[in-house]
Amino acid sequence: MLHRLRQPWVASLAIFVGFICIWAWLTTTPSGPVNAADAEYARLAGQSAAGQQASAIPSPRAVALRGYELIAHALDDDNPNNLGIAWHLVYSMGRVALGFTLALAVAVPLGFILGLWPACYQALDPFIQVLRPVSPLAWMPLALYTFRDSTISTIFIIFICAVWPMLISTATGTASVRAEWLNVSRVFGVPRLEHVTRVVFPASVPMILSGMRISIGIAWFVIVAAEMVGAQSGIGYFIWNEWNNLQIASMIVAIVLVGGIGLALDVILKRIGEGLSFRE
Amino acid sequence: MADLNINDVSMSFVDRSGKALLALDRISLAIEHSEFVCLIGHSGCGKSTLLNIVAGLLRPTSGAIRCAGAVVTGPGPERAMVFQSHALLPWMTCVENVHLAVKQAFRGAPRSELMDRAEQALKLVHLEHAIGKYPFEISGGMKQRVGIARAFAVQPKVLLLDEPFGALDALTRSSLQDELVRIVETTKTTVVMVTHDIDEAIFLSDRIVALSNGPAARIGRIWKVETPRPRDRLKLTSDFEVIKYRKEILEFLYKKAPFPQLAS
Ligand SMILES: Nc1ncnc2c1ncn2[C@@H]1O[C@H](COP(=O)(O)OP(=O)(O)O)[C@@H](O)[C@H]1O
Ligand SMILES: [Mg+2]
Q: Which among A173, A208, A241, B171 is least surrounded, fewest beta carbons within 10 Å?
């Protein structure tokens, strides 16, 4: 029995239960007279009944109920101003999928060229170094101005943030194929094209896939912020909209969903990576 | 005429600080057809460098290599190599690894013939059961067998081996040595092999070439191993001649070309 307790998931569960308990306790115990700052805040936020609530943060129970409601109406699409949360997630994932696919289509061939011809890499490196650290959101106004369409702009933002990790890891993977494998090609006279397709490419697959995994994580990270700024749908827009309605419970539900989907995307790419990479 | 001529070969490397380091200093050696030559010497003296120059992977700073009369300017199908780290491509099965080499050596031959050659080469090293397996599914000794099969499959004039058995345990190493001797004798291949194992060198070689300690390594001494073939591993251990070779080689390595730290 005792050794069971040492399993990591038991500890995780205990931490989770403890967290919920403290949360519940903090949000349900009346905190006495509302202090001045809270009252001020409640007035600003337009909430007249602040005094009735123990806290502005909803209790776990309220969040769970709200979660149930949101999921029960997840697929609603009769009112475009009140879209179900599933549709918002579908919009976000669709934008990520498009931006990511475009980035993949650019980054892998380009990374391959950079890896095979060091002179190209050296020529493009200053641009990569300058553009890569720019926050993807910095492109948003320029994108909105240029494309005059919020969806295209968000997809562009995803493209921009997803392209760098894949580009750099593809180039690195292609350029750092083990010397012994290069020597095999040379000693046995494998022609250039076959060398690239059957030696260099398979050798760099693990690096390409790990770049893809980093990129999808960043893309999912950025989509929420991008949609808050420049979209009328998607999970980022949903969170911002619920904030404007002071539906804090909805925001918390959305945050948990964003985390869950991010985790799922990472696990899927990790699995794909394990499936496609060679074993030694 | 000799199969392989190493003619006054010097090699210097330029290190990171831009200083030139002379690794090999005017090495000359003629290797006869179907002769088995072992290169021996301390670690870092330049054995791999010399072998890579013969393979055409490195260009010597001066001097030249001739293989069957023609000057070597790069790798060629008449010289095959077995690498120390087996160097199998892990995303290809054993037979695909061999096939990749065979395909280049017999360009234009029908696919069925190429496949057949690849499979025959694996059978030659008793690996018919591993044909469709990936390198990660087989043992280190078997991987090295695939490496040997790949090299013989292209029917080279000269076979180059760089410490091919260095990473294997003693029993596996002996069985691979036996395998190598058997195939070399039937194919009459000329062999240059780098090893740091004196017994291995004596068991396999017609001639043992010891390089002096680097930098600026030269040929220190050459032994002609007259022990008749087929050689019996067990009898060899008590053979008077062999004991003499071993003593001389040991003396050469530890007295004439000692480690730098031992010399001081
Ligand atoms: N590419 C290289 N660049 C610079 N120095 C090298 C290079 N390759 C080998 N050397 C140097 O040449 C010497 C001989 O190396 P090597 O041929 O690998 O020795 P061995 O195979 O006998 O152990 C070593 O001192 C090594 O540091
Ligand atoms: Mg070496």
A: B171
Of A167, A172, A175, the closest CA to residue A196 belongs to A175
DSSP3 helix / strand / coil % (chain A, rounded to 5): 80, 0, 20
Residue in the structure block whose two tokens are 């210097």: B12
Residues A39, A45, A47, CA angle at the centre, nearest 5°? 70
Contact A187 B136 (CB under 8 A): no
Class of domain B35-45+76-210+218-263: alpha beta
Q: What does the block give as tokens for B113?
A: 């013939």
Best of B78, B85, B91 to mutate (most A CBs within 10 Å, chain A): B91
Per-residue model confidence (pLDDT) at position A55: 56
Per DSSP bridges, beta strands B20-31 and B79-82 are unpaired
- Domain residue limits at A175: 85-276
Q: How many Å apart are CA B254 and CA B220, to the nearest integer? A: 12
Query: Is A21 inside a domain boundary?
Result: yes
Give residue B61's identity as a one-letter amino acid code.
T
The span from the CA of B190 to the CA of A46, in Å, is: 92
Whether the Cβ atoms of residue A251 and residue A64 lie closer than 8 Å to each other? no
Question: pTM (2 decimals)?
Answer: 0.86
How much is the CA Rg of chain A, to the nearest whole Å? 25
Do A39 and A154 fall into the same domain? no
pLDDT tens per residue across span B51-61:
999 999 999 99
What distance in Å separates the CA atoms of residue B45 and residue B217, rounded to the nearest whole number?
6
